[in-house]
Amino acid sequence: MTLGPLPETDLTRHRRLREQGSLDRADLEAILDAGFVCHLGVVVDGRPLVVPTVYGRDERQLYVHGSVASRSLAGGIPVCVTVTHIDGLVLARSVFEHGVNYRSAMIHGEARKVTDPEEKLEGLRLLTEHAAPGQWSYARQPSRKELAATTLLALSLEEASVKIRTGAPDDGDGPDAELGLWAGTLPLTSAWGAPEPDPALPSEILIPGHIARREGTRHG
After folding, report:
1. Share of the chain above pLDDT 90, in %
2. Which tops the pLDDT comparison, 220 or 130?
3. Where would one find the signal peptide in this protein (predicted)?
4. 107 within domain boundaries
5. Which domain holds residue 113?
6. 125 near 142, Cβ under 8 Å?
7. Residues 29 and 158: beta-carbon distance below 8 Å
8. pTM of the model
9. Which residue in 24, 121, 160, 202 has the most C-beta neighbors within 10 A?
């Protein structure tokens, strides 16, 4: 079943720069698929806490990974997860008009602690494959002890806010255009480098294809 546009709620309504907002679920999925690190925001003991962690997803849920000792991964509490990609600086003629080209997603909801063993294993598979496609079937999978030491949270993708900024500075048709100053964008890209073997690795163990193929490909 194809899911419809993202709903607009009190938490996801775009109040500033509405033209940069999107309710297209495909934009949300593209932003999530382009990265694998998110920031999990939660209030713990009355204080805000923002934790960087890895994630994976299916069509309806985001899975966030952590340690059982982490206070931010208790489950059953409101959270906010953000994923942001910086695509470049927007350098205008005036400092006031400077900006950033970016893609961002902010997901709101009540995190659910995954306790079902099958869902937990599937969530960890999604998370692993999201970061390194092919690695789940290549590496040893978690033992019962390792699963018990790992917390996995599930967060619905239903309530999300998406914003995207692209293009040139906004002052090309204003008075500052007469200043004779350079203006434009400074793109930012990142790519995967050459795999670096563990120094303890025997020389006869070759880099697996699913890792070697990522060298030079764009990330983000």
Report:
1. 71
2. 130
3. none
4. yes
5. 18-172+181-215
6. no
7. no
8. 0.89
9. 160
Question: Residue 198 maps to which CATH number?
Answer: 2.30.110.10
pLDDT at 72 over 90: no
104 in a domain, yes or no? yes
User: How many domains does one find in the chain?
Assistant: 1
Cα–Cα distance between 31 and 37 in angstroms, integer? 11
Please check whether residue 6 lies inside any domain of the structure.
Answer: no
Instruction: Tell me whether strands 190-191 and 218-219 are parallel, antiparallel or unpaired.
Output: antiparallel
The CA angle 152-106-41, to the nearest 5 degrees, is 55
What gap in Å lies between CA 155 and CA 108, rounded to an integer? 8
